[in-house]
Amino acid sequence: MTPPLLRFDAVSKHFGGLVAVNAISFQVRQGEILGLIGPNGSGKSTLVNLATGECAPTAGAIHMGDICLTGMAPWRIARLGVARTFQMLRSFPSLTVGQNLALAMQPGLGSGYCASVLRMASARRDDAQARGRAIEMLRLFGLERFVDEPATALSIGQQRMVELARGLCTRPRVFVLDEPAAGLSPPMVERLIEVIGRMRTDHGVTVLLAEHVMRVVQTVCDRVVVLDYGEKIADAKPSEAVADPRVIEAYLGA
Ligand code: ADP
Ligand code: MG
Which residues form the signal peptide (predicted)? Predict the structure, then answer.
């Protein structure tokens, strides 16, 4: 069996008196596509934010291989090869799609939002090599014709795809996706499913996927961790998880 790449050990996150994530342990193996599912408010985004350093755990530890990520700044975690997308869109409206991708390509800085702001000026330079790679990444999503369009000219679904392309441009080892199917049309969902699969096969990326759309989860995930009110209630293959009475109850009770 392949070794774990990401390891959560008894990780908790409290917001004041609210326990958003309660002593959760799980591992993401190298090359795996692991789903993180659960009703709204169950703690998916919080776990994503803990993995990428946007928030620090109240208790517990997170490791990538031998490296302890607990309390590490997001840009450092990004530099170790962890890319992410956000549940809310975060591209730069004043830049073209190609420039948004070029921002992510500058070596060693990852895809962090703040780091990107600092690099805006240099990204405006027309870098032929960066443009070529941007087009190559956009082609994965069928969006290469938009390379010179402002990011805001795209639909919400297309902008979500651009965020995925931007993350891939950083050549991540682990890609953490927070509800990438939200707002996508049915054909775009199919494209997303194909692209997530290719992230692993073509780019060797390990994926942690918080997702609400079950068709995506059931098609692409090797395994799912199911959350309910911040508790882990199942860790199983998608087909087993959806048949688990606790999981059914969590979803029906939501
Ligand atoms: P999900 O992504 O599964 O919908 P979240 O991780 O966003 O769930 O939220 C889990 C719980 O933590 C919710 O009750 C939410 O209101 C709460 N929460 C999330 N982030 C914060 C925050 N920054 N401050 C206070 N409460 C938060
Ligand atoms: Mg969320």
Answer: none
For the whole model, what pTM was predicted? 0.89
Closest CA to 102 of 69, 78, 132: 132
Cα–Cα distance measured from residue 161 to residue 191, given in angstroms and rounded to the nearest whole number: 9
DSSP run (H or E) holding 168: helix 156-169
For residue 219, give the 3-state DSSP assignment.
helix
Q: State ipTM.
A: 0.99
Ligand with the closest atom to the CA of 226: 1
Question: Residues 193-233: pLDDT tens digits?
Answer: 999 999 999 889 999 999 988 899 999 999 999 999 999 99
Sign of CA dihedral 7, 193, 169, 49: negative
Rounded-to-integer distance, Cα 215 and Cα 56, Å = 31
